[in-house]
Amino acid sequence: MTYCIGIMLDAGLVLASDSRTHAGVDNFASFCKMSVFERAGDRVIMLLSSGNLAGTQAVIGLLKQRSAKAGVPNLWSAESMFDTALLVSDAMRDVDRRDGKYLAASDVGFNASFILGGQIAGEPPRLFRIYAEGNFIEASVETPYLQTGETKYGKPIIDRVITRSTSLNDAAKCVLVSFESTMRSNLSVGMPIDLICYERDSLEVRMRRRFDEGDAYFSTLGKQWTDGTRQVFGALPQLDW
User: Fold this and answer.
1) DSSP letter string, 71-105
2) Given CB 3.0 to 4.6 Å as the disulfide criterion, which of 17, 23, 78, 215 pairs with 211?
């Protein structure tokens, strides 16, 4: 399992992913699930991956391979983020066509999905959720964030805090609290956490951090959130029986 989230704000984008992957309760490992394709002044493309690790790595590898070749549609030649979503979708379906029948023989399906966010010069930042089947949806004013993986524990916090006018820094804090709450309730989500705040129209990544186990800021944030929640709960009016 994993937890990935992308948030679309007036000020830009916030994307974050955990790094835990496992194949059974005694086989945990860490792999980065965030991929960034950046050409300063032209485009920033960020991918968060969820699902079968072999499948997601194959898709990322195929995208990188195609982007290194001239004369084929790729992430560097895409004219819009919508075109980029189509390229990711095509790569997913190509991997599924190659591996799907072998996975099916072992009663396993192609289980890979992505959150795609970024900006290409000439259009505003955009955010997509790409499903395992290759179809996708785009974030909107009404739905400014998209999640994949173990979403249910972090979602209530995002719902209460995030609006399109939320600042990048406040959204980053909110995202980290949602991760802390998710990890507290589900062992299949774990550190390190990769976080990017992308400033609208900057066309380069200026704010990126990885939070490892024991990170002082993350630990302080979690403690203060827990203490503050208990204080607010204690101040709620008593039930009148």
Assistant:
1) TS--TTT-SSHHHHHHHHHHHHHHHHHHHHHHHHH
2) 215
Cα distance between residue 199 and residue 173, in whole Å: 16
In angstroms, the CA 78 to CA 84 distance is 6
Tens-place pLDDT, residues 59-114: 999 999 999 998 899 999 999 999 999 999 999 999 989 887 887 787 777 788 99
Residue found under tokens 């790409």? 130
Task: Identify the CA nearest to 76 among candidates 107, 47, 43, 103.
Answer: 43
**Run of H or E residues at 21:** strand 20-22
Q: Is 24 exposed, middle or buried (0-12, 13-18, 19+ CB in 10 A)?
A: exposed
Contact 92, 130 (CB under 8 A): yes
The residue behind tokens 């289980």 is: 111
Q: How far is CA 57 from CA 53, 91, 101, 163, 216, in A?
A: 6, 11, 18, 33, 31
How far, in Å, are 41, 135, 168, 203 from residue 117 at the CA level? 16, 15, 15, 12
39, 85, 115, 125, 127 from 138: Cα distances, Å: 23, 10, 10, 11, 6
CB 115 within 8 A of CB 76: no
Cβ 118 vs Cβ 88: under 8 Å: no
Whether residue 209 is predicted with pLDDT greater than 70 in this model: the reply is: yes
